[in-house]
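Renewal narrative, Specific Aim 1. Our central claim is that a sequence can be written position by position from structural information alone. The example that follows is taken directly from our test logs and has not been curated for this report. It begins with the structure tokens describing the chain, in the order in which they were read.
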């Protein structure tokens, strides 16, 4: 299946539910379809954006270029050792469908990433993470097509230049390499990571600590704190947690003894953006239909018919407040278009 649609509404293609339009939208389920389409147009002349599940993007205006939307499916074991399996997954699989598949088959490694919205193809782009696990820990390689040269290129884990919520696909090589498949190395007998956040407390409600129950505990925790994008438009965390010098963090700790801090490498400390935003007075506040979520200040929601630019304006006001109060510049995690 492949199709080119012109002047399409993107409302059902982004989790904020923003009704922006795209001039051209090409959806395809096989890599070869993308290659023949690209041969038929002059792609270098166009503004291109690769859209997965649309759960980490904010359209602030109509998109005057070409959107590529891969819906490549498939979950396939391609290699097996005594202790691991290598799984090749199509970019268009829903991330949580893959996590569910892994847990049902007793493969360890991604259970802490349960219920993260979006497609598998987007998971390496922003190195999704939660509860002490990042997808870079499990990715072996990423298969792509260079949309300019129409050649295949496989990126090893190291080639992807993974950082906290970042990779080469979100920075240097943005919109150049279209991810078709991701290869994940999962473990047959892994160790559960239950020390992070409230997982241990939530697990007390279960009769045993096992793979399936850790997934369910994380689903429960996320459902309590995070708004369901099917009910109220949002893109999960809107901002990254800022990483500052440990000296700066220590200074803040003197003034705000309760500030949460996490070690982040040599003389660096990660702060909780949600905490900084709440302390700046924004939790639960709205401006029109754009609002800061009442249970988690890191999340901005579209209460009904907010425009993308209104959500972005609210985000800018938050950035200014946090800077004035703490001297820290929050960086947006969501891609602003
Ligand atoms: N906090 C507040 N007020 C708030 C929100 C948080 O005081 O409104 C405090 C919490 O009490 C806690 C600290 O901030 O002390 C950190 O909060 P939490 O553990 O909830 O995690 P987070 O830093 O807000 C990150 C990820 C989430 C991920 C969780 C769990 C980022 C940008 N966000 O959030 O990822 O689910 O950890 O691991 O790193 C996402 O990327 O969309 C996402 C939801």
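The sequence written for that structure reads:
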């Amino acid at each position: 299946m492949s199709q080119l649609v012109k002047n399409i509404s993107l409302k059902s293609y982004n989790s904020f539910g923003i009704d922006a339009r795209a001039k051209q939208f090409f959806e395809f389920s096989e890599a070869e379809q993308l290659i023949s389409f690209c041969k038929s147009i002059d792609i270098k002349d166009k503004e291109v954006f690769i859209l997965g599940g649309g759960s980490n993007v904010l359209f602030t205006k109509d998109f005057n270029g070409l959107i590529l939307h891969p819906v490549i499916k498939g979950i396939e074991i391609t290699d097996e050792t005594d202790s691991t399996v290598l799984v090749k997954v199509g970019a268009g699989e829903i991330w949580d469908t893959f996590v569910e598949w892994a847990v049902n088959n007793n493969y360890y490694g991604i259970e802490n990433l349960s219920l993260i919205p979006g497609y598998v193809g987007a998971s390496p782009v922003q190195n999704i993470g939660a509860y002490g696990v990042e997808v870079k820990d499990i990715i072996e390689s990423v298969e792509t097509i260079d949309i300019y040269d129409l050649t295949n290129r496989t990126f090893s884990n190291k080639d992807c230049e993974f950082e906290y919520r970042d990779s080469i696909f979100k920075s240097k090589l943005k919109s150049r390499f279209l991810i078709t498949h991701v290869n994940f190395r999962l473990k047959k007998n892994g160790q559960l990571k239950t020390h992070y956040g409230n997982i241990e407390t939530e697990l007390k409600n279960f009769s045993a600590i096992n793979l399936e129950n850790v997934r369910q505990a994380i689903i429960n925790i996320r459902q309590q704190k995070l708004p369901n994008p099917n009910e109220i438009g949002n893109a999960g965390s809107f901002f990254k947690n800022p990483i500052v010098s440990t000296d700066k963090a220590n200074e803040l700790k003197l003034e705000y003894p309760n500030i949460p801090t996490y070690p982040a490498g040599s003389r660096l400390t990660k702060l909780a953006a949600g905490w900084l935003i709440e302390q700046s007075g924004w939790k639960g506040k709205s401006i029109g239909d754009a609002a800061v979520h009442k249970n988690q200040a890191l999340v901005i929601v579209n209460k009904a018919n907010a425009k993308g630019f209104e959500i972005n304006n609210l985000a800018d006001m938050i950035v200014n407040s946090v800077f004035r109060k703490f001297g820290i510049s929050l960086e947006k995690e969501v891609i602003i278009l």
